[in-house]
Amino acid sequence: MRSVNSWWCERKLGERRYELPPGDFGWPFIGNMWSFLRAFKSTNPDSFLSDFIHRFGHTGMYKVHMFGNPSIIVTTAEACRKVLTDDEAFKPGWPTSTVNLIGKKSFVGISDEEHKWLRKLTSAPVNGNEALSVYMKYIEDNVVTALEKWSEMGEIEFLTELRKLTFTIIMHIFMSSESEQVMEVLEREYTALNYGVRAMAINIPGFAYHSALKARKKLVEVLQATVTSRRNLRGENPPKAKKDMMDALMEAEDENGRKLDDEEIIDVLVMYLNAGHESSGHITMWATLFLQKHPDVFKRAKAEQEEIVKNRSADQNGLSLKEIRQMDYLSKVIDETLRVITFSLVVFREAKKDVHVCGYTIPKGWKVLVWFRSVHFDPETYVEPKKFDPSRWDGFTPKAGNFLPFGGGSRLCPGNDLAKIEISIFLHHFLLNYELERHNPASPMMYLPHTRPKDNCLGRIRRVSA
After folding, report:
1. Which pTM value belongs to this model?
2. Domain ranges of the chain
3. Domain 67-463, CATH
4. Most exposed: 114, 208, 295, 300, by fewest CB within 10 Å?
């Protein structure tokens, strides 16, 4: 049966099949998905790739059959950089489940030209010093309020509360404000949505994809009501200036005067609201946990924050962007957290033509899985790669392709600066005034859809200074 599956995947390649990297297509229909899911639901997710390395050697590229398609996994910095930056040879190749859940008219499903236009339109409000300065006060006020509230709540799911916080922030940027009830509904549905994003597209009750589709339907209903309400308000009282990202999307026109319809706006919102709070919330949690687990790192990071406050002028109220840029050691803590955790373990591309990469051929139409975990855990680049060590970044700048926490190339995550500022502001106030006491430090880990403790980091936030 496995031989039949290999023949089926390679039947149209002719002589090109001899140029493929080594690998294994697994079983018919399910391909390698069973071994992938088994590894990532175990205590050792890297066993999936380790099995290929053990059987076929350190070739850096492996043929597989995943998410319903014959694919090539690329695991070296050189190959990853090639795939991410060569837009002439590769385009997005996300699984059906991802495209259907995030939206066919979001960044995961649109053409390069549409992507360039929408990216330029939507990245401006979340990048650059001027744009980021606008949101800093709002972010800081919400962080201070949240930490104070959590310290009085007793035992909380730290990750759950962080995700609510980061969702409040991204909602403010994109939609100005919504009622707390609406935000809670949206954030809850996003939790269900995420479990299906990297699952097989099996729309049967009991499967993650089925539940995620129902969650998307509810998200679209809520966002559609908001878009309709905003359009009605704009018709009655046209705004004199753009209020938020939704206004910008409604006013946007391409060179031919075409405007975005409701479906396009909603898909962009679904994508940004999801990406804009998931990564920030998870990485903030992990940075906090690493700081608590390594007292020497905590002490050095806290000293840096105390020095920043000490040098602040008496009339300054709150953090400035300049101060955040001065957080040299904290920036290394965040980068090391991004490396060790690797929030997005893989991104997907598709070959537009036959492409030769590192001695192998990726056939036209085949999917390419850019495997970030292997790049970030490469012992030739990072000594003791699974060890959390912010000092490794002292005087060290990784070569292109060796550090990809936000992807790379033209589809680099547009909100990376905003995410790092959110995390920095939170850690600044946490380091100065709080500590985390976990209920169960030995909580089992989950690796799908993202790495997290199974108990969502149950514990208490304690205030340690006035």
Report:
1. 0.93
2. 67-463
3. 1.10.630.10
4. 295
